[in-house]
Amino acid sequence: MAKYLDTTKKAEINIRLSEFEMPPMQDVLIVGKRAPIGAEGARRMVDILSPDQYDIIKIEHDTIEAIVVRRTLLKMLPKDKLVNLILEEGGKIANESIILKMQINITIQVSRSIDI
After folding, report:
1. What's the pLDDT band for 49 if we cut at 50, 70, 90?
2. 50 near 57, Cβ under 8 Å?
3. For 63-80, what is each residue's pLDDT tens digit?
4. Is the peptide bond before 51 cis (omega within 30 degrees of 0)?
5. Is the CA virtual torsion 52, 83, 80, 26 positive or negative?
6. Is the overall model pTM greater than 0.85, yes or no?
7. Could you tell me the residue range of the domain that residue 57 belongs to?
8. Which is the most buried residue in 7, 30, 62, 115, by most CB within 10 A?
9. What is the band of 21 on the pLDDT scale with cuts at 50, 70, 90?
10. Cα first-last separation, the chain
11. Residue 113: inside a domain
């Protein structure tokens, strides 16, 4: 019976930021505090466009009111790590009046060694 000697897991994350355009929805929206639609407006929009596909997460931040995240991403990464990553990268270019869409591609990489 083979035993696992060494197990490592890595997540490779690529992020693309661009200005939000009505539809299509992508993986994440960053909603500024004075954006044309607020968190509640974003909730109604995603409920109409893609019911049960996104979570709205209200944020304590200087310029960002909320982020809208595709639920499948939250199943792949812990919520706090994903939110921190989104705020770290998106917060660099977001301002109070903007809505940014963000594309996130997650590739899970697993490497194992076994006795042979």
Report:
1. confident
2. no
3. 999 999 999 999 999 999
4. no
5. positive
6. no
7. 34-102
8. 30
9. low
10. 9
11. no
